[in-house]
C-alpha cells in the first residue's frame, strides 16, 4: 500500500532528522562551554550569560551535588567571561556534565549512523549523510579542550 510506504518514509526522515538535529544542538551547547570565540565565532558562555537552560545545566541541577547546583545558580545569568573560564569549565567537568553531554552526542550520531546504514537511501544520499556525520564528528574533536 502506497500510504503505508509514504508513512514509513516520513517516519524514517523524522527519526533521522531528529537524531542529527539533537547531535548538532547538543554539540552547539557543548561548544558554548568549551569553545573559544576564535574557534566557534560565537561569544564565550553566551548561553550561561543569557541564563539559557541546556542539557549541561540540566544535568547539574538533576545530578550535581548541592555545592555544584549553588555554583551554577551563581553563574547562570551572570556576566561570566574569559576570566571565569577555568572556574566554569571546572564545574561542568567535575559534575560530570561534559562527559554526559559528549556521550549524548555520540549516542545521537550513532543512532543517525544506524538509520543511514539500514535505511531506504540511494547511494548518493547515503554518502551525503555519511559525510555530514563525519563533519559533525570532526566539529567535536576540533574544539575538544582537555581541561
Low-confidence stretches: none
User: Please, what is the average pLDDT?
Assistant: 90
Shape descriptor? elongated
Query: Biggest sheet, in brief?
Result: none
Rg for CA atoms: 18 Å
Report the portion of residues in β strands: under 5%
Per DSSP, the total helix count is 8
Q: How many E-type strands?
A: 0
* Distance from first to last alpha carbon: 55 Å
Classification by helices and strands:
mainly alpha
> What share of residues is helical?
over 70%
Order of SSEs:
HHHHHHHH
Molecular structure report:
With 147 residues, the protein is mainly alpha-helical. 77% of the residues lie in helices and 0% in strands. It has helices at residues 2-34, 37-40, 46-50, 55-63, 66-75, 85-94, 97-118, 123-142.
In short:
The protein is mainly alpha-helical and 147 residues long. The protein is 77% helix and 0% strand.
Helices and strands, with pairings:
Elements: H1 2-34, H2 37-40, H3 46-50, H4 55-63, H5 66-75, H6 85-94, H7 97-118, H8 123-142
Helix pairs in contact: 1-7, 1-8, 4-7, 7-8
What keyword list fits this structure?
about 150 residues, mainly alpha
Amino acid at each position: 500500500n502506497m500510504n503505508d510506504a509514504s508513512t514509513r518514509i516520513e517516519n524514517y526522515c523524522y527519526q533521522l532528522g531528529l537524531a542529527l538535529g539533537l547531535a548538532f544542538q547538543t554539540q552547539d551547547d557543548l561548544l558554548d562551554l568549551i569553545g573559544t570565540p576564535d574557534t566557534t565565532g560565537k561569544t564565550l558562555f553566551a548561553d550561561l550569560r543569557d541564563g539559557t537552560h541546556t542539557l549541561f545545566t540540566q544535568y547539574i541541577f538533576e545530578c550535581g551535588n548541592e555545592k555544584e547546583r549553588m555554583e551554577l545558580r551563581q553563574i547562570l545569568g551572570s556576566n561570566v567571561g574569559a576570566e571565569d573560564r577555568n572556574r566554569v569549565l571546572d564545574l561542568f567537568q567535575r559534575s560530570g556534565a561534559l562527559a554526559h553531554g559528549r556521550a549524548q552526542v555520540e549516542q545521537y550520531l550513532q543512532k543517525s549512523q544506524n538509520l543511514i546504514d539500514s535505511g531506504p537511501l540511494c547511494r548518493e544520499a547515503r554518502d551525503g549523510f555519511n559525510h555530514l556525520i563525519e563533519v559533525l564528528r570532526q566539529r567535536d574533536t576540533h574544539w575538544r579542550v582537555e581541561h
